[in-house]
Design goal:
Length: 201
């Protein structure tokens, strides 16, 4: 388990991971840089789940931003002499909730990417447009000679395999970071780890 401070600073890593998730997901729409297949809906159905753009990307950036604001939030109201100071403590239940959402969103990206690899690409074969590897439960990965069945887009098996694998790695790191954050926040949930310094007359 990460120490408390390490888990907080590790949240910063979620932002570049999320940006790369968005970039990789966008690349999946354009095999070999060709926009024709996206326009004709000739892509594997798992690229339309927006796992990298929405859940592993935009939502994770929002969650990381909220977690950073919560962890490093300090409020101090300057006052005059004669004012009385007191501290208000806030448990980290809210932070733990967002960390849990981070685990769920990144796990969704991981699962969809893994399913995309297991199913294989949607491509044109001698029988027309189809999923040629959908019945062998990912067995095509161990036999690269089968990849030539996909005539169009060219090298689509490698394209999908590399990009979906990158998404799996990125989202795995996000899951680990958010899970460690969630555990740390659970540990300190009732310890009053957030303190707001206020002053009253």
């Amino acid at each position: 388990m990460f120490p408390k401070k390490c888990s907080e600073y590790a949240i910063l890593a979620i932002i570049p991971l999320a940006v790369w998730n968005i970039v990789v997901n966008i690349l999946l729409y354009f095999p070999n840089g060709d926009t024709t297949y996206a326009a004709n809906n000739q892509l594997t159905n798992y690229v339309w789940y927006f796992q990298g753009i929405c859940f592993g990307g935009i939502m994770m950036i929002m969650i990381a931003t909220v977690l950073l604001l919560v962890d490093f939030y300090k409020c101090c109201i300057s006052g005059c002499s004669g004012k009385k100071r007191f501290n208000i403590h806030f448990p980290k239940l809210g932070s733990m909730t967002f960390a849990t959402l981070g685990v769920l969103f990144s796990a969704y990206t991981l699962i969809i990417s893994a399913l995309g690899i297991a199913q294989g690409p949607y491509c044109r074969t001698t029988n027309g447009w189809e999923y040629p590897f959908i019945t062998n439960a990912g067995g095509y990965l161990a036999d690269s000679t089968l990849w030539s069945q996909c005539l169009e887009p060219s090298n689509v098996v490698q394209w999908n395999l590399i990009l979906f694998s990158i998404q799996i790695v990125l989202s795995t790191f996000q899951v680990i970071i958010c899970f460690c954050k969630m555990i740390c926040d659970l540990k300190y949930a009732f310890c009053g780890t957030h303190r707001i310094l206020t002053q009253v007359w």
